[in-house]
TrEMBL record, chains A, B, C, D:
<keyword id="KW-0812">Transmembrane</keyword>
<feature type="domain" description="Ion transport">
    <location>
        <begin position="30"/>
        <end position="247"/>
    </location>
</feature>
<dbReference type="Pfam" id="PF00520">
    <property type="entry name" value="Ion_trans"/>
</dbReference>
<keyword id="KW-0406">Ion transport</keyword>
<keyword id="KW-0633">Potassium transport</keyword>
<feature type="transmembrane region" description="Helical">
    <location>
        <begin position="103"/>
        <end position="125"/>
    </location>
</feature>
<keyword id="KW-1133">Transmembrane helix</keyword>
<keyword id="KW-0472">Membrane</keyword>
<dbReference type="InterPro" id="IPR027359">
    <property type="entry name" value="Volt_channel_dom_sf"/>
</dbReference>
<dbReference type="InterPro" id="IPR005821">
    <property type="entry name" value="Ion_trans_dom"/>
</dbReference>
<protein>
    <submittedName>
        <fullName>Ion transporter</fullName>
    </submittedName>
</protein>
<keyword id="KW-0813">Transport</keyword>
<feature type="transmembrane region" description="Helical">
    <location>
        <begin position="65"/>
        <end position="83"/>
    </location>
</feature>
<keyword id="KW-0851">Voltage-gated channel</keyword>
<keyword id="KW-0631">Potassium channel</keyword>
<dbReference type="InterPro" id="IPR028325">
    <property type="entry name" value="VG_K_chnl"/>
</dbReference>
<keyword id="KW-0630">Potassium</keyword>
Length: 279, 279, 279, 279
């Protein structure tokens, strides 16, 4: 293991800890990450199961104890990250720093709001604990092609959603007038809810058109939704195709400079030279 | 600021106003547009909220006053556009001219149809006020690639919808015979409504097949809808791919004439010359 | 108008009629086609409206008379086609010959099955009248690119549907065991119906899982359906892209032989020579 | 028919049987495969129909006898495969070997668990008989392009599902807090079920948001689901496009070495030499 020459002993430990906690290039660093990932998934699973009434009655106390165990683990992790970070303030203000803090705060705050009367507040505090799941985002560095394709098409998608909003608003107002409160369209906001349920082809059926004219307009709305579903798919497919062919262009043989190799190719198909592994 | 030599003073003011109201290349012109956009969105939001019974009871009067405020603003805007347009009649007959008129008419018409007995008429008049939202279309000049791709594929999409109509009609008639009025298929138009709800995968569940044969045909209908959803997506994706590669062809370096640059490229990747910003 | 030298007068009239009825290259031929198309659409609309109870009560008799009018028109058309066709037997056996016969048969057959007791038989006979709509297929010659893309991908789509069938059958059996008759899964065929309703994302809600395990399996089924919806779209998009670029290859300038022109291009972009109109 | 010289007679019969049972290149081998395929489909259809109460009452005994007939056929097939396989143990441990065993086991196991009290056990045993359908997988060797495209995009699809899981969990927790048990969101696992039903646009309607805020969040969830449905489609389409153009590259004329021929081309379009049939 690489050992740095260091006059200050504490600084050396901090540096070692930094490599383990923030890095992924040492064995201990990878163990640390995997342990943390398991803890995050288990703690979120606990929060979810605790909301099931029958499980809460039987195992509520055990879950409460485990819950505090995870809170202490995540608190220690947060303090360690603060201690060994090169720029503690920048870390605390970063997205992951805030997420790490949010994932332990609710449990401590719940201590100051006890009593059975504050159920809603506690329920909301409990909710925030599931933001722990966002800590997993740290391990999601592979999504670059997807993300770039989405950002690339962001402007077109925005225009698409703007147009859909116009259509939804006009259709909602028409349906409100045609159907009226007697068929469940009690207000235009409720009518907007129905239009979105219909145009996205979800179709709960909690509000359905009752009049003949309303059903005809609903049928048109569905056919419209059916065809505009094609637009974002088309935009994104075109962008992803380009991203893939671009990333293929980047796989260039360092020997004969030929590019365009498959993502899983190991050797250059022109000169037989070994290709670098893609990250 | 660019100042035109003009013998007639009124004509000069008209010209200035025209640049502010119709143009977007001056600071005042942009402020005017943004103010108008905010007014449109606020007035449409008011119309929508006014239909919620509880809000109408509590804030109905304030909404009514604000509503008249917006009507006066849009009336002034309409008159100003008529006054300073180079061709007032052509503007009045244009799409946006009609939309601008439609957005103020309902409020004035409602004055001539008072009384509680004309609720439906008033409800329809109120409806028309949301056409104000169409005024936002003016700011939607970015959708060219999408629009061209859609027009390009218009013929294929028409054939697709014609074929779907044939399938829907045949399936509706079969389901009407198989299920009959006792399972909610009271007429073929109602059966068409069911078929569209099913083939677009909306699936409200207000009418569902009750017989075994009907459920088998319904299952086939769904699988059919599931596979034909692929057709418009395929058509549009192919067209958008072509539009994107075509618009890329147009990004040509004026120095070395190499084309095919990325949309977000700033410099030519061949000679390093600066590229023109795409609009 | 082009006039053929002919010794037999009847044969000349037959030839003339053939050009009008089967052809689309004369003015009368186009008028004949358009008139027929309007008749087909009107007659199908009548059949559909007649099934609405309130319309049948009020306008039943008028519809019945109009119905017989259309039947006579289509009978005349069928006899004329038989008379002036170059190969009457081949026409009678062709797809359109059978459709033309099927579109008039039900009305005549209904004469031999009167009485109120044969309502179902008559309803089924009436159903067949909507096959008139298939007569419109004759005018649908534009769908070549789409059809070729679909046939091209037929083998892949068959494998796709075979795989989906396997998945549906296994999931149906599992859900039948997990949920059982008490939650509406009364038999495996009913369970297959539910699986198809779910996997195609239709989701009527007439049968929904009641147990926790069933809901978990249902959620997996939905995610599965959500991702496999991508497969036929992907296959078809790839094929349509190829068909479009192939049809573009076929637009070759007859002057300088350069190909790859846009579908709507009128002149060669290389030598300026006029391009032939694509059919 | 090809005849091998063989000193051992039993080994020769085994070899002959192996060609018939495992191979598809002889006439008898194809007959064997087709007979087996029909048996599999018929036996699975029987299992499915037997679960319909009315059919079970009337035809239960005949189905039971036929069921035993199929069990004996599949047992004989399994023993024959074991006998004539070159590596019996390897076959028994292979995927198809296990599937072949699983398809006969349930019927024999049911003999040891008689009595009316073990209905659930018998129902589960009956379930396993439908795994016979997996025997059809043997005949599904055409799906290579699809499978390779799916594996190629496996990593991107995994990241996609991981991101969707994060979104689903956060949305479920929010909806649980907003709606609460009084609107059917009794626990977070139930809330996850609702979120998946909504985001995949299935929309049963068994659980629907009741509060205004809940309906607004539901509408956002649907629009989200509507746009992320585009992502796997885009990934897969891009990969399939590449697989198709790659498989076309492989159709190379052995005479003049020109490649890029259509899948259904029989002759080289450059030199006219006959092309090899693609498998």
């Amino acid at each position: 293991m690489y050992q740095e020459k260091s006059s200050d002993n504490g600084s050396s430990i901090r540096h070692q800890l930094r490599r383990i906690i923030f890095g992924t290039d040492t064995k201990l660093g990878r163990y640390f990450d995997i342990t943390l990932m398991v803890c995050i998934i288990l703690s979120v699973a606990l929060v979810f199961l605790d909301t099931v009434a029958s499980i809460h009655e039987q195992y509520g106390e055990i879950i409460g104890i485990l819950e505090w165990g995870f809170t202490i683990i995540f608190t220690l992790e947060y303090l360690l990250r603060l201690y060994c970070s090169a720029h503690p303030v920048r870390y605390a203000r970063s997205f992951y720093g805030v997420v790490d803090l949010l994932s332990v705060m609710p449990s401590y705050l719940a201590l100051f709001f006890p009593g059975a009367s504050f159920t809603l507040v506690i329920r909301i505090l409990r909710l925030f604990r599931i933001f722990r799941v966002l800590k997993l985002l740290r391990y999601l560095s592979e999504g670059n092609v997807l993300l770039r394709a989405m950002l690339q098409s962001g402007r077109k998608v925005f225009i698409f959603f703007f147009s859909v909003s116009l259509i939804v608003m006009v259709l909602s107002a028409i349906m409100y007038v045609v159907e009226g409160p007697e068929n469940g369209f009690t207000s235009i906001p409720k009518s907007i809810y129905w239009t979105i349920v219909t145009i996205t082809t979800v179709g709960y059926g909690d509000i359905t058109p009752g009049t003949n004219l309303g059903q005809a307009i609903a049928a048109l709305t569905m056919l419209l939704g059916y065809s505009i579903i094609a637009i974002p798919t088309g935009i994104l497919t075109a962008e992803i195709s380009q991203e893939i062919s671009r990333s293929k262009d980047l796989r260039r043989c360092s020997n004969c400079l030929k590019n365009g190799h498959e993502n899983d190719a190991l050797f250059c198909d022109h000169c037989g030279g070994e290709l670098e592994r893609e990250l």
